[in-house]
Amino acid sequence: xxxxxxxxxxxxxxxxxxxxxxxxxxxxxxxxxxxxxxxxxxxxxxxxxxxxxxxxxxxxxxxxxxxxxxxxxxxxxxxxxxxxxxxxxxxxxxxxxxxxxxxxxxxxxxxxxxxxxxxxxxxxxxxxxxxxxxxxxxxxxxxxxxxxxxxxxxxxxxxxxxxxxxxxxxxxxxxxxxxxxxxxxxxxxxxxxxxxxxxxxxxxxxxxxxxxxxxxxxxxxxxxxxxxxxxxxxxxxxxxxxxxxxxxxxxxxxxxxxxxxxxxxxxxxxxxxxxxxxxxxxxxxxxxxxxxxxxxxxxxxxxxxxxxxxxxxx
Length: 314
Ligand code: ADP
Ligand code: MG
Hints:
By secondary structure, the chain is of the alpha/beta class. It folds into two domains: about 90 residues, no CATH class; about 200 residues, P-loop containing nucleotide triphosphate hydrolases (Rossmann fold). It has 13 helices and eight strands. The strands form two sheets. A six-stranded parallel β-sheet has the order 3-5-6-7-4-8. Strand 6, helix 11 and strand 7 form a beta-alpha-beta unit. Helix 7 runs parallel beside helix 8, helix 10 crosses helix 11 and helix 12 packs antiparallel against helix 13. The protein is elongated. It starts with a helix and ends in a 9-residue tail after the last strand. The structure holds adenosine-5'-diphosphate and magnesium ion. The site of adenosine-5'-diphosphate (ADP) has 14 residues, from helix 8.
């Protein structure tokens, strides 16, 4: 008996509290600067009975205040993380819409961007390179970065297969510049793939046993812009040269897809490398095959020599 009186009394007190709390909330909502500004320019909403709109205005205030004290996207306390409310009015009623906030938009853009750049065995610093970071401290670097930028802003995969052949000594920034190209291409929604050739060829050889050669080849063959990094540093074999490199280049030429290279070798040195196939003496057939591949490479790239100081600081 005592118990039940006590609970209904509690209930009553709660209701009373609730009522005054509700009025306080309502005052706070209507007093919130963004709501005040909104009501000032929408008198028909202001005159509508408060109950009709107060819930939406309350939600708007609560979420918007989260944004005003934004703790960053990862910590976003909003109902839908990264979404910001906007209000409008129709026939005296408040309408609430959500749209991605600036941080969310940026993060989405970055994700889209990253999904456009694929890579195999390439360090992260290269994948983050941009043209803004390239120091032009050497004449050949300046002309190389001009050629790189020109390619990045003009490339039309599927219509024009002309690429670039960056050659020069170790550590001058050839690979780095390719990273900048990949990022600029991503800005233009063009996908690219940077492949470190020695590791890629090794993986291809190992793939013979598990039957995944074709699948791996297809990935590389069809990318909009393929970047073969450090060609010439691999151990060459007739199979890799003819059935991997040769097949990739043949396909890309037919499809008018550009390929970019970096190498310590110039065209002639690379041709000699491709002809040396570990059978001891260089055989005629290897010379012929190397020549055929190099004709393709030369025909489909502009050579760019890069010199400068070794930046690997050792
Ligand atoms: P390469 O491919 O010619 O051997 P890399 O591109 O690997 O040379 O560059 C050598 C080192 O110098 C890398 O650590 C790279 O991140 C750094 N590097 C190259 N170019 C720049 C640059 N413009 N600004 C800052 N760091 C760079
Ligand atoms: Mg390199």
